[in-house]
Amino acid sequence: MRSISMKNNPAVTNTKKQSRRKFLLNTTATVAALCAPSLLKGYSIAQAKTSSSGVLRVATPATPTGFDREFNVTTGDLEQSSNLATPMLTWDTAPAFGIDSNWKVYEQDAKKIAPGLAESWSLDNDGKKLILKLRQGLISNHGNELTADDAVWTYNRVHALKGASSFLFFESNYGDPKTSSFEKIDRYTFAVNASNPSVMLTRSQASVWQSLIDSTEAKKHVTTSDPWAVNWLKANPCTYGSYFVEDFKPGEQIVYRANKNFFGGPPSIEKVIYRQVPSSATRVTLLKQGEVDVATFLTPDELGKIQTAPNVRVLYFRGNYLSYIVPNQKGFEPFTDIRVRQALAYATPQKEIGAQIYNGKGNVMRSPVPETYPHYDGSGFSFDYNPAKAKELLAQAGHSKGLKFSAMYTDAIPELEILGIALQTAYRAIGVNMELDRRPPAAYFDALYGPNKQYQAALSRELAVVPDAVHATYQFFYSDSVINTAQVKDAELDEMLLASLVAPENKAPEIFSKIQRRIMEQAIWIPVWAPGNQVAIRDNVQDFTWQYNNGFTWAKARLT
Amino acid sequence: MGKSSSHVKNETLNGRRDKGSGDNRFLGNYSSSMIRYVGLRLLIAIPQLIGVSFLTFLILRLLPADPALAILGPYATPEGIARVRSDLGLDQPLWWQFWKYITNAISGDLGTSWQTSKPVFQDLTRRFPATLQLIILALLISLTIGLTLGVKIVTNDNPIIKRFVSGYGLIAGALPEFWVGLILIELFFVRLALPGISPPVGQIALGLAEPTRITGALALDAFLSMNLSAFLSTLSHLLLPTLTLVIILVGPILKLTRASVEEALASDYIWYLRALGQTEKFVKSRALRTSLPSILTLTATNFSYLLGGAVLVETVFSWGGVGQYAVQAIQNADLMAIQGFVLLAGALTVLIYLALDIINAFIDPRLADLKG
Fold it and tell me: N or C end of chain A, less CB within 10 A?
């Protein structure tokens, strides 16, 4: 009875509630105070594990989409492919041009081919047969030894699938199964039989696209409907590179583990973690704070700002990127007139753009072939900024009252927007109104590289991934090429380009000079700037190499 | 007097319960109305989902981007493109593609993402808990702050506080999420470098092993598996992205709560309650209850929006949730991934609104009375 009355008494209930609340508060505070040291300790353990010395941490815009070179060719795929897969031949390396040698940074040098998975090579049959002698004892991540069977299977697979590597096979005269073949001479000797001799026959073997697949493992995963294990290889690497994949979470991160049996010696950095950080501003922050060791694909503006941050270096490589305008000759009739194209070239303030947008890093684009590639010839460039001449040419072409066209670009390449605005402003001075047409990446690349080419002009920052003048010119300017982005049809140029495919080494310099001069004089592209490639990196990372795929190899790198 | 007051309260405010306790027929009707209502809403959800899928399917086919070319890159040969198009079924008539998609989707096969080379269903189920964890936490905190402040501010006479709250309510709704995120990173992580603030990358420290997967939400999994270091790491990673969303979300909740409670407090029944001598706390709780349906609707809207709308926060903090996945899919013409995401977001939105309608029907049974 008494207890009931106490329960119903509001004063007593309130007092009880208050004392219960006080008790709970006091208990929580006591527990928190007792646990705080251990909690903080636990937290510090969590933090400490993130920066162990044998781990290189890279912040990248994208992880790979997969591991099949025929179908996974995004920037993320290419950037990291050189650590995972090694071709039969490779390019020699040299101290990076313009970088303090104390920093021990290297770049590939396409003037000299070096052994890769193959230890030696030779040409036979009047330069139509390339014989490659594979190294013995190379073991894949699945434990199988590399043999000529793997090379034959990998190359036949390209013939069958006609995937992304096909272009290289065609350019090198072994793309057509009717006129070319791949041969196992003995367990470790492989031969490519091309339809014609070409400088590309040997050079193409050094492309990162030409990595070999462990066919013993891959064949275990073929099915009747998938005779080349496409579905399996997309998600399962089968390689002989300096690093193997330890853990892969697409869209988040990929962890590479050092291949202790790598032919170049075991890498000193045990693990490399590529973490996807889509926002470039966040990549900058992480690098500044030492949370990552490398930040890739920052904007020129961010690179300019971060170079003064303590313990951070911004390294410039001459690289192979070129920035230019593609005037689509079928998309906008006035572009068929050479005077209109040349007028735009003269109205382009290249040096000012280089200074303001690219912080002065790079050079004026003087050729469609990057200056680091063999057979580069910039003598065809004659478009120093001259708006008066540009106006004169426009008037001669019947456009004295001006011209209006649209230029598409994509935000996937951040500097294109600011580049477009700078060009837009410059062209207004000669009465040309260039409207900017921003498109999502897929739509932009579909228009540029697809069969329809629905655009009047395009702003582009592109690279020829194989360091060779054949690759840098034939694919973009041959009239029937799928990626003849300017849709140029020039019979004389076509003839030269076809001749370049079968040019012997001693004739190549002359042919390529002619080709480059022709392309520049005709202003088939409106040249702007060769911005090179820059990377922001902590100063404790040394002995790494820039590669032509605009990625870095960490096989010999050290963390100091 | 006290007895009489209590009697009035029971009849006026809990009339439904009092009436129900004395009338089984009402309860029966109420239950059957509710069941009918929920059943009908579930039935409507099926054509809604098919409609959403169909529209998404059609719109994606109109995009000026060929997935085959996106997969093969610039060096694709015409034969290669034709082969990939055939593999993806893109060379088949539209109706056939849609039929195939729907029939596969029913069995849980949403196709394969070319960006990740993995089944879309697997991608979504792995990423979804990360997004869900973030937005549920942000919404719960926002609701707590928004409701508490919204009610308190109504009766607060301090003009400075009132002005501050009004100003905040206005500004918060207009702030871009990514900007708030970047500012918070700069302030707390870079400038102040506070202990416990993790780098803005992912849900757990780089290199730290993830806890045993139970729900997929790392913080919850770390807690359930008693993994202290992982739990602390996930909490510290949750801090800034959650705070970013909270700063944005509290604004509209606060504004709406304040407006609704103010409106409710001016109602006749509140005057009546006050006239009966009810405590101010009780009066406010009644006013808040009246405001709940509109606040719940706003919360549900925010939840649906955040499923895809938190993408900017996910991007700034490299969160790895479904929003980030969807945007990358759109940028790269990854059709299967976009379709899968829209289907998931559509299904969840339908479920959330269904749950909202049911809750609202419980709060106000007239909504479930289909005949009335």
Answer: N
